[in-house]
Amino acid sequence: MSFTGYFFNIDNWSVPGFLAVMVLFVSYLIFFDTRKLQKLAFGLSLILIYLALGSPLAKLTSFGLHSIVMLQHIILLMITPILLLKALPNSLLQSSWLVSVLNKVKNTYLLLWLLGAVAMWGGHFFSAALLSAKTGTAICGINATAGSWVTAMPSGLSFALLVIAGLLFYLPVFNPLDSGRLAPLKRVVYLFTACVSCSTLGLYVVFSANSAAAVEAIPIFNTLRNPLPMSLRNDQELAGMLMWVPGCILYVMESVNILLKWYDGETAEESTVAAVKISKD
Amino acid sequence: MKDKGKLLVLFLIASEAFFFIALIIAYVYYRNFTNATDTVAANLDAMRTGIFTLFLVGSSVTLIFGKRALKKGNNQTFKLFMALTILLGAVFMVGQITEYIGLYHKQITLNKDVFGSSFFTLTGFHGLHVILGIIALSILFGVSFTKMKPVTLAGIEGVDTYWHFVDVVWIFVFYFVYITPLL
Amino acid sequence: MSLFIDIPEDDDQLPALNTGRGKLIWISSVDHKQLGIMYLWLALFFFLIGGIEAMIIRAQLASADNDLISPELYNQIFTMHGTTMIFLALMPALIGLATYLLPLMIGANEMAFPRLNAFSFWMTCMGGFLMYFSFFSGGAPDAGWFNYAPLSENNYSSTAGVDYYLVGLILTGMGSIGAGLNFVTTVLTLRSPQMKLNMLPLFAWMIFINGFLLLAAFPLLNAGLFMMLIDRQFDAHFFIPSTGGSAILWQHFFWAFGHPEVYILALPAFGIISEVIPVFSRKPIFGYKFIAASTVAIALLAFGVWIHHMFAAGMSNTVNGFFAASSMLIGIPTGIKVINWIGTMYKGSIRMTVSMMFTMAFLIDFTIGGLSGASFAIVPIDWQLTDTYYVVAHIHYVFLGGTAFGIFAGIFYWFPKISGRHLSEKLGKWHLWLFVLGFNMTFLLQHVLGILGMPRRVYTYPVDLSYWEVLNLISSLGAIFMFAGIAAFLWNIYVTLKKPRQADDNPWEAWTLEWATTSPPQLQNFTSLPPVHSRRPLWDLKHPDNPDKKLN
Q1: C35-542 CATH choice from 1.20.1050.10, 1.20.210.10, 1.10.3720.10, 3.40.630.40
Q2: Cβ atoms of residues C215 and C177 within 8 Å
Q3: Per the CB < 8 Å rule, is A259 touching C296?
Q4: In Å, how far is C254's CA from the nearest CA of chain B?
Q5: Is residue A266 helix, strand or coil?
Q6: For all residues of chain A together, what is the average pLDDT?
């Protein structure tokens, strides 16, 4: 079937998902008093979540396309958490429990970094096991039987865990409370070291596309009927490169943004004062 | 952080981490991305090396206690734990060397095949870093007996960081070289 | 017993070399200023040797079917020319300027680790001399400056030349890592307490970021070098395909180092330009935060583009495509810098010193080099032009037109500070015009030669290929102009060093802290510092009614 035929087919768009997203957005607008930028951020994050989970993009994963899954995960793990953190309403920040937790982030950043890294590496091991269980072949040396516990985990739960891991990982950098953020340069180092870890895995994914194991598993991955016809090798390489290049570029843009703000000489107090002022307007 | 010694060692180990990542990448590449079969792995004794790994990890633990004692001023305790650290590190090296000798007797050397090359290079460079660490620890230990005790206090942070790095690298090397063939 | 031993120190900041004591002081020096000067002399020495190698290359290529030197010797000459210029001329020059200026710019009296500083210098020295010793012991390395496997392995290169390359670069690499460690720790721990990190002079900031690049890139090179050394000396199999190894892995390791290396060579030059342009335009730098932030972007992206050196190595289209995209992207931060530099000059009151003129030559020629580089990001263009003289033109435009012009601008700018004397502007102008003219003559037409298909590293070419001979001849004539320009430069240095030390503290009316002390500085750089509340402390001192925005 053609690409446009696939995307314009209403059956491939999740209607309950669309309704849920609308309800969430409207509730956000009604119950919280937030700045325009925050409303935009929340709306965008909902659009992205819908794109990742309820649009034809999500259904493409049923064709076994690694690159589409990668795109989903980049959206859910790397982009949406930033938007959600930016959209966090000030009224929620009044809760003293939340404030004390957010302030502790500065001291626990190593743990949060590790959590992000473990979520990524562990998630890949988990997915490889899941795929191995579904298809019966070894994926990158990982074997799992059809009745293994990995198949019992609902996909909704794993997606939710992804978003939560992303939120926690990003806290030291994008904490809504400035007092809970690391110093600007430390934030850049935090992101860069995560980038190295992610790139190493991306490297592995790309260069393993050629290896013998991938070639043997071809009959299982029938991509002939999918609207994005590509060979297994191309799909795998695309997946790895998505991790690497767009992921790196995203982190570089975030780092540059951090640095530009820092160079203006804004101190932490100044920016929170400015934020409080604007929200009062 | 204003302790420039510790800062220096942190950046040094970050730099060395890239070095070891490169060597590990070479190893993983040969293992997973070529059609060559690994001839070395079958001759490795993961259990034996695992025990020696525990010795190395133990030496990190004793070093932590030693540093704590030094900072509190308990010089006798410090000397004890430092000696233990050096001893445990030396035991690890003996384990490595005897393993090398064992492999040599089985005709597995640097030039056996691509796995021999990458195994000995990776573990060899790690061993070299361990030896350098033992030398640094020994210098601090020796100096603590003389009138130049403040030097020990000045140098303990840097050497401590370096030694833990050597330990962590070994965990990764052990995983990739000894554990992954068994999976 | 006190651990502090009071050793009498010499008062003379630059001891005379004609006494034995003076020589000993220089050899045993751990003073960052003396080490910086030694780095610069080392760089000049190897630049001249590399230049002579270049003259030999151009003489050989001036006419078709030439047999001035044998092909074997030609291979050694072009390999050593590239290796020398990059690792023994440009790197030491930049590291030398940084070693000299970094503590002064941040208001410190010394680098964080003076003995490590000396270690770095002498390692660089040793590595260089070891590599050149190879000429006397069986032949220099001859597999190109990036030394691809399997050509560089034992079965194709059986002389010891490649081993000298490997060991020599391991030594200089260790020196560079030491320098990187020093730069980073010095900026983080020895800044004047009032100087926040976002107030650093741009040269200091670039050196700081460059330090991280040095620390991350050189270990990758060292890993590859050690592996190849083990291949050659112990018959290992890392990069030999016939026995299970992978020659492409060498390419990956080398270029994963090699690409950050070109930014290591570019960033300090950008820093020099960012210091020189504001002073000689009498305006503060336009867009400080953009120049500074784009530096970090370049450093981060530098590790994500290396496959563009390997587009012709047979990676898949997917991989090539992504790296083409990232390679095009990395041109953007540099472009931002160029715009900001031009923005600084706009409506400024330009002082046409030789330093400023080299800077303007940099802006033009480095941009040309950047454009030809960006053209390589387009994979089909790369496939056509890889390993041709188009690449040679590109690398010389960025290395010579970029880094070297930046170094010349910096030398003319800081010479009064370092030696207490001004280089002659008249001789400097001869140097500049001869060199810039010769440079463009040599390398501009090499773009055309590359498009016409002349491969690089060929020791000669047939006479019946149209235009090859005339283009090569013009290229070689340009080299003669460059030779004359450098001769003028050497004469300038010689004549200037004979003059008495007369320079003011701040002859260019600049605004950063290195100009707040004598020229040359005393052994202890500063006895007191002016207050530092902005990025231009000396401006604030002179204009208390109109200071820069307070940043701390």
Answers
A1: 1.20.210.10
A2: yes
A3: yes
A4: 11
A5: coil
A6: 79
DSSP C314: T
Please give the structure tokens belonging to residue C469. 């001979």
List Cα–Cα distances, B102 to A167, B45, B89, B175, C241, in angstroms: 50, 11, 20, 21, 28
| Joined tokens for residue C398 | 């960025």
Distance CA A220, CA C166 (A): 47
Q: What is the pLDDT of residues C304-321, one digit of tens each?
A: 899 999 999 988 888 899
Using an 8 Å CB-CB cutoff, list chain C residues near B121. 226-227, 230, 236, 238
Which residues 14-53 of B are in CB contact (within 8 Å) with A? Answer: 21, 25, 28-29, 32-33, 35
Question: Residues C512, C105: contact at Cβ < 8 Å?
Answer: yes
Place of tokens 């992978």: C246
Q: Are A211 and B180 an interchain contact pair (Cβ–Cβ within 8 Å)?
A: no
Q: Give dist(CA C290, CA C475) in Å, integer.
A: 38
Q: Do A200 and B35 touch (CB under 8 A)?
A: no
Mutate: best of B38, B40, B117, partner C, most C CBs <10 A: B117
Least confident of A152-156, C247-251, C343-347: A152-156
Q: What is the dihedral of CA C127, C132, C136, C140, to 10 degrees?
A: 100
pLDDT in tens, C76-127: 999 999 999 999 999 999 999 999 999 999 999 999 999 999 999 999 999 9
Q: What is the pLDDT of residue C352?
A: 95
Q: Residue C3 has what pLDDT?
A: 65
Cβ neighbours of B16 in C, within 8 Å: 219
Answer whether C170's CB lies under 8 Å from C222's CB.
yes
Residue with the two structure tokens 């190493």: A200
Test C220 with B18 for CB contact under 8 angstroms: yes
Tell whether the model's pLDDT for residue A270 goes beyond 70: no
- Give domain limits for chain A: 3-90+102-280
Burial of B99-110, coded b for 16+ CB within 10 Å and e otherwise, reads: bbeebeeeebbb
Domains contained in chain B, CATH given: 4-33+52-178 (1.20.120.80)
Q: What is the mean pLDDT of residues B121-144?
A: 94
pLDDT exceeds cutoff 80 at C263:
yes
Give me the pLDDT at residue B63, please.
95
Q: ipTM value of the model?
A: 0.93
Nearest-CB residue to C300 (from A233, A234, A252): A252
Q: Pick from C185, C187, C208, C239 the residue to mutate for testing the B interface (most B CBs within 10 Å).
A: C185
Report yes or no: B46 and B178 within 8 Å, Cβ to Cβ: yes
Q: Which residue has the higher pLDDT, B179 or A219?
A: B179
Render the burial of B40-63: b for 16+ CB within 10 Å, e for the rest.
Answer: bbeebeeeebeebbebbebbbebb
